[in-house]
Amino acid sequence: MKDIDTFKTKKVLVLGLAKSGESAARLLHKLGAIVTVNDGKPFEENPAAQSLLEEGIKVVTGEHPLELLDEDFAYMVKNPGIPYSNAMVTRALEKGIPVLTEVELAYLISEAPIVGITGSNGKTTTTTMIGQVLTEAGLGGLLSGNIGFPASQVAQTAQSTETLVMELSSFQLMGIDAFRPQIAVITNLMPTHIDYHGSFEEYVAAKWNIQKNMTADDVLILNANQDLAKDLAEKTKAQVVLFSTKERVGGAYLEDGLLYFKGEAILSASDIGVPGSHNIENALATIAVAKIRGVANQVIQKVLMNFGGVKHRLQYAGDVAGVTFYNDSKSTNILATQKALSGFENDRVILIAGGLDRGNEFDDLVPDIRGLKAMVILGESKERVKRAAQKAEVGYVEAEDVRDATQKAFDLAEKGDVVLLSPANASWDMYANFEVRGDEFLATIEELKG
Question: Which intervals hold domain Mur ligase central (predicted)?
Answer without folding.
Answer: 117-290
